[in-house]
Amino acid sequence: MLSNPMMEAVEAPGSAAASAGAAPRAVLVTDPNPASRELMLRRLQTLGYATLQAADGAQTLALWRSGGAGMVITDSQLTDMDAYALARAIRAGDSGNVAIVASWPHAFLRDLEACYEAGIDDHLPQPASMAALARLMAQWLPLPVAGEATLDPARLNALAGGSTPVAESLLQDFAASNAADRRALQRAFALRDLAAIGRIAHAVRGAAQAIGAARLARAASVLEAAWRRSDLPSALAGQPDFDRACTGLDDYLALRLSASA
């Protein structure tokens, strides 16, 4: 994996979002081979990234223009254009905040030079190890580093038995139930109803722990503990952190679920 020395002075895409604790934008995987594309999607999701997918250059450009993609990982030869033409098309309308990575088995020096001239930032040789993929992602689209993870993909994957469709279904169910719980909790806070706060927080904590939403589980546990101590002031003091945890998770779920739709 070689980085373009001309790009070293440019801030890595996604770093500002990561430092602010926001979920990164999705990774757009472009590959005409369904099996290869699915493998890359699964590996990225295991690392905690939301994903988008395309089979050709036209689909890639349409998805990129719709927003939400922070990185494009592309095969060399698509059905309607090659990776160089795709990169030039993206760069023609891009301010440089989308990373483009070429991913194919072998690349000679002349290939890498052609990549950089076309606006491709990096090359990931295939087959690539998870460690190599993780290093590349950390450079170009780092995950948030503030506090607990928004969602632990390993925990969710274990709960879903390794099935991506099951995981997405679980997240959809959680998003719906958590939205209802959040509305109920807001009413409980408005009424200063400590018993209701504790009851709802207990349910939220259990569900959040089940899917690996560590930050939300911690924020809910603070409210639950205040209820058990009959400590309304502490419960009220914990509301802002709970709201921030919910908002962060809502943003992550919206991105991931829209990317998989």
TrEMBL record:
Q: How does it sit in the membrane?
A: Multi-pass membrane protein
Q: Does the keyword ATP-binding apply?
A: yes
What this protein is called in its record is: Response regulator
Q: Which UniProt keywords apply?
A: ATP-binding, Cell membrane, Membrane, Nucleotide-binding, Phosphoprotein, Transmembrane, Transmembrane helix, Two-component regulatory system
Q: Fetch the Pfam families from UniProt.
A: Hpt, Response_reg
Q: Which residues carry this modification: Phosphohistidine?
A: H202
Specify the Response regulatory domain's residue ranges.
26-141
Q: Which GO terms describe its cellular component?
A: plasma membrane
Residues that bear 4-aspartylphosphate: D75
| Domain HPt, first and last residues per copy | 163-260
One GO MF annotation is: ATP binding
Subcellular location per the Swiss-Prot or TrEMBL entry: Cell membrane
Primary location group: membrane
The domain of life for this entry's organism is: Bacteria
GO BP terms, alphabetized: phosphorelay signal transduction system
